[in-house]
Amino acid sequence: MPYLQRILNAKVYDVARETELELARSLSTRLGNTVLLKREDNQPVFSFKLRGAYNKMVNLSAEQRARGVICASAGNHAQGVALSARRLGCRAVIVMPVTTPALKVDAVRTLGGEVLLHGDSYSDAYDQAVKVAADQGLTFVHPFDDPDVIAGQGTIGMEILRQHQGPIDAVFVAIGGGGLISGVAAYLKSVRPGIKVIGVQTTDSDAMARSVEAGKRVRLTDVGLFSDGTAVKQVGKETFRLTRVLVDEFIRVDTDAICAAMKDVFQDTRSILEPAGALGVAAVKQYVERTGCRDQTLIAITCGANMNFDRLRFVAERAEMGEEREALFAVTIPEERGSFKRFCELIGPRSVTEFNYRISDEQKAHLFVGLSTRTHGESAQIGELFRGQGFDAIDLSHDELAIDHIRHQVGGRSELAANERLFRFEFPERPGALMRFLSSMHPGWNISLFHYRNQGADYGRILVGIQVPKADRSRFRQFLDTLAYPCIEETDNPVYRLFLR
């Protein structure tokens, strides 16, 4: 049966709903194009996957459903199968990688699925599911490489054209195994072939793009797991056949770009996507930047929102890097009184996002500094400003070691930190507050340790080590009393003595 006919006859609406095609107002204004979001993250299981799963299972024979079904999934297909099984009254065994977020595992169990955890990726889970299916006589429900599954996902394309009958220039679709893009492309190219269908993959899980480029299916030895919903080592035979013919181009996006896209969607919708769900939005931004297109209608399918809450810490950290809204520097200044303040004055009105320093050398001080930026390439300009004033500066904005690790490890013990006392300060977190705090520091005592990181809270928190000679203790106490910031002395804290003293 031709795919257009399969999609038109797909049975998905017993469990799925027609999701919104929503204007992303802020993103559209920023990019100079109309950006629409196809909100599959609003499905009952927060993913498009139940469309294909149910369409496959409802077309099974009564005898097949009586024996039960099994699938392999990183989480979203699993929930679709579990919900469909509950609706159809059959047993469902779900094999999931051990790397699957707990949120998805718990959701499958809540829906009545029997969960087996196996392997590090979808491909590992798939191999195990095939064995279990043979041993127990279960019917395998493939997450992407099945005509009924592909047709179920294709109903998204059908809805898009029904919801937006005006011009559509391009539709951006995330690719894992290829079921979603195969179904959407099959419908769009049958009805309105002038619409570009653009596949999106992560730079470290791009099996489909590599396969199309090679002219044959390529199996990756390893895949990145940040976008766990698209972490597939090898795409399907049928999805490869369809994708290589129907998809116009591919865009690869990295982790920082995905995090920035998640933030963009949140700002427009107040919804939090999972990484795979934001691939389309990340690609829209990259496409506009590369082509310079204006006044086009671009649609991104936000295909999932099964996001572990704990992962938000990482996303918030990396989103600013993906948008180039934060620049990181290693700056060397003379270890002498006044140079620290002179450097801070050079920063000017820019918001400081991070400031780490530990005394370690009698001649030079090494600072780890984060600054907010507004435009792409601004970090290079800031670096030139520092160097022009005599401060050696290394731009670390794209240095993975600095971003992931070194920023958290600046410091340690120092033999030069004699007479050091340690204090925690709090101050209202608003523009200029950190600089006002630095300006209030008395020039008579040397700062030997400084740590600040903007956490997005109402109050900023700073850890400061100050070298105070014993003869100056009385004057130092008077100095603390005159400060307008609450402080707590931590000099006797055992953590400080273990790791910094």
From TrEMBL:
Pathway membership, UniProt: Amino-acid biosynthesis; L-isoleucine biosynthesis; 2-oxobutanoate from L-threonine: step 1/1
Keywords (A to Z) from UniProt: Amino-acid biosynthesis, Branched-chain amino acid biosynthesis, Isoleucine biosynthesis, Lyase, Pyridoxal phosphate, Repeat
Domain of life: Bacteria
Cofactors: pyridoxal 5'-phosphate
Pfam families the UniProt entry points to: PALP (PF00291), Thr_dehydrat_C (PF00585)
GO biological process terms held by the UniProt record: isoleucine biosynthetic process; L-serine catabolic process; L-threonine catabolic process
SUPFAM superfamilies membership: ACT-like (SSF55021), Tryptophan synthase beta subunit-like PLP-dependent enzymes (SSF53686)
EC number assigned by the record: 4.3.1.19
Domain ACT-like: 327-398, 421-492
Database matches in CDD domains: ACT_ThrD-I_1, ACT_ThrD-I_2, Thr-dehyd
Molecular function via GO: L-serine ammonia-lyase activity; pyridoxal phosphate binding; threonine deaminase activity
Transmembrane is among the record's keywords: no
Catalytic activity as recorded in UniProt: L-threonine = 2-oxobutanoate + NH4(+)
Enzyme category, top tier: lyase
Entry keyword annotation includes Acyltransferase: no
Family: Belongs to the serine/threonine dehydratase family.
Subunit annotation: Homotetramer.
Functional note: Catalyzes the anaerobic formation of alpha-ketobutyrate and ammonia from threonine in a two-step reaction. The first step involved a dehydration of threonine and a production of enamine intermediates (aminocrotonate), which tautomerizes to its imine form (iminobutyrate). Both intermediates are unstable and short-lived. The second step is the nonenzymatic hydrolysis of the enamine/imine intermediates to form 2-ketobutyrate and free ammonia. In the low water environment of the cell, the second step is accelerated by RidA.
UniProt-recorded name of the protein: L-threonine dehydratase
Species, as recorded: Leptothrix cholodnii (strain ATCC 51168 / LMG 8142 / SP-6)
